[in-house]
Amino acid sequence: MIANEYINRAIDYILDHINENISVDDIASHCNFSKYYFSRMFKIETGESIHEFIKRVKMEQSAFRIKIEKGRSITDIGCDYGFSSSNYSSAFKQHHKLSPIQFRRCIKQKSLLNPVFRNSIGLESFEECDKKISIEILEDFLVIYERHKGTYRNLSEHWGVFQEKNKDYITDKTLLLERTYDDPSITKIEECLYDICITVPEGCTLENTYVLKGGKFAIYHFKGLVNQIYSSFQNIFNVWLPQSNFEIDNRYGFEIYRKIDCDSMFMEIDLCIPIK
């Protein structure tokens, strides 16, 4: 768990400005710390230096764009993240061990292996996937959150501890949400970043709160077992988005837990993908 408020503030700043040429100085200044002190603090808390984190996020988010925006040129995508054509190809290959062109050719096949449960998956047709998706406008959510970096294998345990810790804020109107920042077919599973959240009423004064922005979303209405969630995301990313008339925007997606059977692990979850 990443519990340090200032580190989370820095991560939020990086994620919100990842398309810009941000520096360690910018981030330390944003958090009101000296560059050298804050750099040490960030490395201790996350296991990565600020520079390494920024570079990795740029490489993985741009790879995600290559995956879902099949009609866009690799040069344009790299440019979005501040790279020239030659610099982007070199940096991409160093990080992913493939050139951007090779990555685009093989990412769909790579996506068919669930890195959490180590099983192969199949993809739905566009028509099958489209039947499960609705386009909706969601309100903002005020939430208490807890940020984690690492495998999703311990997610149910994290949820149990988080709910017990915040039980005084849970009512029959509380929603359980999970904000995800990475596609685990691209990001190493031990480096995936996610927030577990519960909604709270306006006026909550806890420090670990933020407003999870609403807006326009494509919502995949998932019904199934926990080990099938990954394949539903891959249906959205590999099948629905490339063939639909919609484009994902720069917000991060999240999930709303509607029903959970803890014995069978059958779930009903809204997978909310932000679109323009």
Automatic annotation (TrEMBL):
<dbReference type="InterPro" id="IPR018062">
    <property type="entry name" value="HTH_AraC-typ_CS"/>
</dbReference>
<dbReference type="Pfam" id="PF06445">
    <property type="entry name" value="GyrI-like"/>
</dbReference>
<dbReference type="GO" id="GO:0003700">
    <property type="term" value="F:DNA-binding transcription factor activity"/>
</dbReference>
<dbReference type="Pfam" id="PF12833">
    <property type="entry name" value="HTH_18"/>
</dbReference>
<dbReference type="InterPro" id="IPR029442">
    <property type="entry name" value="GyrI-like"/>
</dbReference>
<keyword id="KW-0238">DNA-binding</keyword>
<dbReference type="InterPro" id="IPR010499">
    <property type="entry name" value="AraC_E-bd"/>
</dbReference>
<dbReference type="InterPro" id="IPR050908">
    <property type="entry name" value="SmbC-like"/>
</dbReference>
<protein>
    <submittedName>
        <fullName>AraC family transcriptional regulator</fullName>
    </submittedName>
</protein>
<dbReference type="InterPro" id="IPR009057">
    <property type="entry name" value="Homeodomain-like_sf"/>
</dbReference>
<feature type="domain" description="HTH araC/xylS-type">
    <location>
        <begin position="8"/>
        <end position="106"/>
    </location>
</feature>
<dbReference type="GO" id="GO:0043565">
    <property type="term" value="F:sequence-specific DNA binding"/>
</dbReference>
<dbReference type="InterPro" id="IPR011256">
    <property type="entry name" value="Reg_factor_effector_dom_sf"/>
</dbReference>
<keyword id="KW-0804">Transcription</keyword>
<dbReference type="InterPro" id="IPR018060">
    <property type="entry name" value="HTH_AraC"/>
</dbReference>
<keyword id="KW-0805">Transcription regulation</keyword>
